[in-house]
Structures are given as structure tokens and as C-alpha cells.
Amino acid sequence: MMGLTNSLAGLVISHLTFALPLSIWFLADFFDNLPPALEEAAMIDGDSRYSAIFNVLIPNMKEGIIAAGLLSFVLSWNSFLYPLILAGEESKTLPVAVAEFNTFQGLLISRMSAAIILTIVPVIVLAFYSQKYLVKGLSETGIKG
Fold first, then answer.
1. How many CB atoms lie within 10 A of CB 22?
2. Which residues pair with 102 in a beta bridge?
């Protein structure tokens, strides 16, 4: 009816159902810890409310936004159940493709190992380059771990 079955758009919308609430919950405490004086000072200096948000508040929240984005990315990147059920051949994700190396003839261990390495390398590289934002973002919110 809406054309969302076996499509990339349907898969993206399904990932938003759990990534967006996680990000909102994660960032809520971060937003609460910002002093209201920042926005007030920007508005006294002549900024409108929207320009104060984009020019003052968001640059002060970049660590939390990057940490929430990274956690949402990793959650969606490693998702297996939604893509297994909702995705077709055109919108198959890497974890589902890796699972297909377990066939009726046996486990294709060399292909599966190579696919697993190719699946985890982008996440490791992204985490390595955003490590300082991730550590600061996680330490300034209510999530400790």
C-alpha cells in the first residue's frame, strides 16, 4: 500500500523506531545540564532564539550529539532482527548477509570471517576517530558504564 515492504525506506523507518527514542533519552539529561544563562546571554547580545540555539547551544552540546549519533549508528549497524524480517534482497544489511554464509551445505567459514571483519572495521574506525567526543559525551550524561 505505501511501498515500504522490502525497501530501504521501510528499513530506515523501522530503525528510527528504536534509534530515535534512544537518542532522545540519551540527550535529555545532556540538555538539562546546560545552563540557561548561555541562551539568555546570546539573546541579550542580539541573537534570536533560533540563532542562539544554532550558534551557542548546539556547539556546546556537540560531544553529546556525536556520542548519541555514534550509539544510534552502532545500534542500527548491528541490527539483525528488523532487517531479517523486513528487508528484501535489495535492502539487505550486512549482519543478514553474514548470516547467509551458514548454509545447508555447511558453514562457509572463510567467507564469513572476511565478511565479519569488513562489517566491524567501519565501526572501529568511527569509534577511534570520535573517541574523545564519545568519552566526554558519555561522562557528561547520566549514562555511566
1. 14
2. 107
> String of b and e for 76-104 (b: at least 16 CB within 10 Å)?
bbebeebbeebbeeebebbbbebeebeee
Is residue 139 within 8 A of residue 29, CB to CB? The reply is no
pTM (whole model) above 0.85: no
Please list the residues that pair with 106 across neighbouring strands: 103
CATH number for 8-140: choose from 3.40.50.150, 3.30.70.100, 1.10.3300.10, 1.10.3720.10. Answer: 1.10.3720.10
Residues 92-137: tens digit of each pLDDT: 888 888 888 888 888 888 989 999 998 889 888 888 888 877 776 6
